[in-house]
Specification:
Its main location: membrane. By secondary structure, the protein is mainly α. It has one domain. The chain is globular and about 60 Å long.
Length: 200
């Protein structure tokens, strides 16, 4: 019951953070266009699963690592930026769907998407602010952390799924290899541009 007053503001916070552009949403748009909504579902649920573990971990003490060891944050930014550039290159150089050979080009798996959240500075910032601002002080900390993290991902699900659906809709309008190459190039460029905000 103590958590109930926090749920409304926490939901508004999560909507504002998950529906706005960021590395996850740009990649979901590209994946939806290239592979369709259904094949992008593992990517969607990987983001949710990774954020759930990250947010709960932050509430249970993982966030203290950032405070005590600033070099960890710097290292995380560098690792996250390098991996994001790799993903951007994969997106930008992906061939059009009708020119792919069987097995060539795959959307991110559940585990790849989940692991990326631990190297995604936006996910860290989101989790730190969520737990610092909305975790109830009373009651069992572990239970509250798990409930808040789960609620946050429940709110985030339709927001990020919207981006995958948007990409799927775009994919139906793209006609010919040239249009696909331009689209994938733009998506790759937008993904790479997120590095500026990470390192800036």
């Amino acid at each position: 019951m103590e958590a109930l007053p926090f749920l409304g503001p926490a939901a508004l916070y999560m909507i504002s953070m998950t529906i706005t552009p960021g590395p996850n949403n740009v990649m979901l748009t590209a994946s939806g266009a290239n592979y369709g909504f259904l094949r992008t579902l593992p990517h969607i649920f990987g983001i949710l699963g990774g954020c759930f573990l990250l947010f709960a971990g932050i509430a249970l003490g993982l966030g203290l690592v950032f405070e005590r060891y600033p070099l960890v944050q710097t290292g995380l930014r560098l690792v996250g930026s390098a991996y994001l550039l790799y993903l951007a290159w994969r997106i930008a150089t992906a061939p059009p769907p009708d020119l792919r050979q069987r097995g060539e080009g795959r959307p991110l798996s559940f585990w790849q998407a989940a692991a990326f959240q631990f190297a995604n500075p936006k996910a860290w910032v989101m989790g730190l602010a969520l737990m610092a601002g909305f975790l109830p002080e009373g009651g069992d900390t572990v239970v509250n952390a798990l409930l808040l993290a789960g609620f946050a991902e429940l709110v985030g699900l339709p927001c990020i799924a919207l981006w995958a659906g948007f990409g799927t809709a775009i994919g139906r309008w793209l006609d010919g290899p040239r249009a696909w190459r331009i689209f994938n190039g733009v998506m790759g460029g937008l993904t790479a541009a997120c590095v500026y905000f990470i390192l800036g």
